[in-house]
Amino acid sequence: MPLTTEIIEDAQPGVNARGQLTGKSYKLYDSGGLFLWVTPTGGKWWRFKYRYGGKENQLSLGTYSLVSVMEARIKRDAFRALLKEGIDPSQRLKEEKAIRLAEEIRQLAASRFTLESDGGLTLQLGKRCLALTYVETMELRSFLDSNRAVAPKETSWP
Description:
By secondary structure, the protein is of the alpha+beta class. It has helices at 5-10, 69-84, 89-112, 134-150; strands at 26-29, 34-38, 44-52, 55-63, 113-115, 121-125, 128-132.
């Protein structure tokens, strides 16, 4: 039976769906791998359970107070569509997070570094501002390029 708002709000911490006192976390199942994880402290987390590459995985979809039943079902359906295309939803989320992080870093750098019309570089570091001449900028670029060439592969350079 699909979950309703009433069933979810009636779910008590430490009391399972049968009304038994357990003091443990328990699951309220919806459909298609979607369930609500009720913790002993009263937290209600949406989870999506799926199999990919022969392994069972779970994704957290958020808390009940912030994510409604319909929103959780929409997210579940989007992840199921990815699975039909042969894409691991967890891996896709990690890739999207990495892209967002890289964009945030790029925007931060764009706000801190300015390349002047004369070829000089201006750095904004907190309240301090450092202006390099064209020659100093070229020396810095040369230094960074030479160090990047010898950096280990696992070092992440922006």
